[in-house]
């Protein structure tokens, strides 16, 4: 049986047996935080458990490497929607060790694309159109530096309101241990942090 068919078969049972009831919550994050993290499979359940978040507590946005590649791309838009439309008061970028984006190589990536049927002509057309593929497909050497970069892009975005702390953490995908890279409260000069927010 193909995977999609397996998913739909399971889903029918899931709905019929009302398993969804244990996950019911609102669209607003109870702990008023939006998290940008990596799409790594190891973090799907580990990250919320390591951060003590349950279903409904936070908004989670995912991208390869927890990278904000463009200040006006979909990742940044999602974070701003979380703040303005869904009530998030804080943002936290969580990168991780052993990330697939670490040392991503554009030339190797494009070779794999060609081996999967993407023609050299299409790749050349992108270059002629002004797409800087080597920059767009650039990875990072040190996850802490990547987290700092994403925090910086978010924190300095012209549409982010004052008073929104932007934190940066790195998680170990084997143990769940979190290391602080940037404490977003430290950069807020006119606002005292709510120390109890994450303990609610």
TrEMBL record:
<feature type="binding site">
    <location>
        <position position="96"/>
    </location>
    <ligand>
        <name>Zn(2+)</name>
    </ligand>
</feature>
<dbReference type="GO" id="GO:0008270">
    <property type="term" value="F:zinc ion binding"/>
</dbReference>
<keyword id="KW-0862">Zinc</keyword>
<dbReference type="Pfam" id="PF00484">
    <property type="entry name" value="Pro_CA"/>
</dbReference>
<protein>
    <recommendedName>
        <fullName>carbonic anhydrase</fullName>
        <ecNumber>4.2.1.1</ecNumber>
    </recommendedName>
</protein>
<comment type="similarity">
    <text>Belongs to the beta-class carbonic anhydrase family.</text>
</comment>
<dbReference type="InterPro" id="IPR036874">
    <property type="entry name" value="Carbonic_anhydrase_sf"/>
</dbReference>
<feature type="binding site">
    <location>
        <position position="99"/>
    </location>
    <ligand>
        <name>Zn(2+)</name>
    </ligand>
</feature>
<feature type="binding site">
    <location>
        <position position="40"/>
    </location>
    <ligand>
        <name>Zn(2+)</name>
    </ligand>
</feature>
<keyword id="KW-0479">Metal-binding</keyword>
<dbReference type="GO" id="GO:0004089">
    <property type="term" value="F:carbonate dehydratase activity"/>
</dbReference>
<dbReference type="InterPro" id="IPR001765">
    <property type="entry name" value="Carbonic_anhydrase"/>
</dbReference>
<feature type="binding site">
    <location>
        <position position="38"/>
    </location>
    <ligand>
        <name>Zn(2+)</name>
    </ligand>
</feature>
